[in-house]
Design brief:
Purple Acid Phosphatase, chain A, domain 2, 7-stranded mixed beta sheet, about 240 residues, 17 strands, about 20% helix, single chain, alpha/beta
């Protein structure tokens, strides 16, 4: 885990793509996409059916590593609104144990709500909400363009390509905006990488991500690397 300053506080970004908020003892994860494998299998693209187990094992490990008392998910928790009903018994038991062990809050995303308005998480323990404000920080699924308060979100699955010893490596990353106005005012916002085992991603410098974080003075990709926080500039306000 590496320290990260955000919204006037110190956080910890884990190697496993989670964010820990020490003051709130809260672990924040985005885009679990549980049961993505079974969704694709139903549509003729068989994948190994163990993605939910792997994802939940990684959540459990992050809880142990950080000592978190609360878990907050940032939406797209299941790959579709019927995903909760497809959990095989072992994965269902893992999820039930986790939601009993900590204060678990499901922020819902666009994949989670069915056409009838039903929420996949309603049957899984924990508390489903559309968004949450905690100690002045807004937690929601998708960044809201024009937001000037501190904000944590997911949705975009950001990744960055880096060169390491002449090799090109694609790594999931967080994307952080600095300030909100040219005069230095405003608050930072952050898009977390996708946490789920079968989640792909998009370039952290994609225009959709940069637009979602406006207004901003600067936007950077950040990843834990060799025990420190590596920062990669993505966009700067014109002078």
């Amino acid at each position: 885990m590496v320290p990260l300053s955000f919204a006037g506080e110190e956080w910890l970004l884990t190697e496993g793509r989670a964010l820990y908020w020490p003051r709130e003892r809260a672990l924040v994860v985005a885009d679990l996409h549980l049961e993505k494998g079974s969704f694709f299998a139903r549509h003729g693209q068989p994948l190994p059916p163990y993605d939910s187990r792997e994802t939940l094992e990684r959540v459990a490990l992050a809880i142990r590593e950080t000592g978190a008392r609360r878990v907050i998910t940032l939406g797209d928790n299941f790959h579709d609104s019927q995903g909760a009903g497809r959990l095989e018994p072992h994965a269902a038991g893992m999820l039930a144990a986790l939601t009993r062990a900590v204060d678990w809050v499901w922020i819902t995303g666009n994949h989670d709500i069915g056409k009838d308005g039903a929420v996949a998480e309603a049957r899984c323990g924990g508390t489903p909400v559309e968004e949450l404000e905690l100690s002045g920080v807004i937690l929601r699924h998708q960044a809201k363009r024009g937001e000037t308060r501190p904000e944590l979100s997911g949705h975009f699955h950001p990744r960055i390509q880096i060169n390491v010893q002449r090799r090109r490596i694609v790594r999931p990353c967080a994307v952080v905006s600095a300030g909100g106005h040219a005069d230095g005012g405003g608050s930072g916002r952050m898009i977390l990488p996708a946490f789920g085992a079968y989640t792909a991603g998009m370039s952290a410098a994609d225009p959709a991500i940069l637009k979602a974080l406006q207004p901003a003075r600067a936007i950077d990709a950040v990843i834990p690397m060799r025990g420190r926080l590596a920062t990669f500039p993505l966009w700067r306000m014109a002078a």
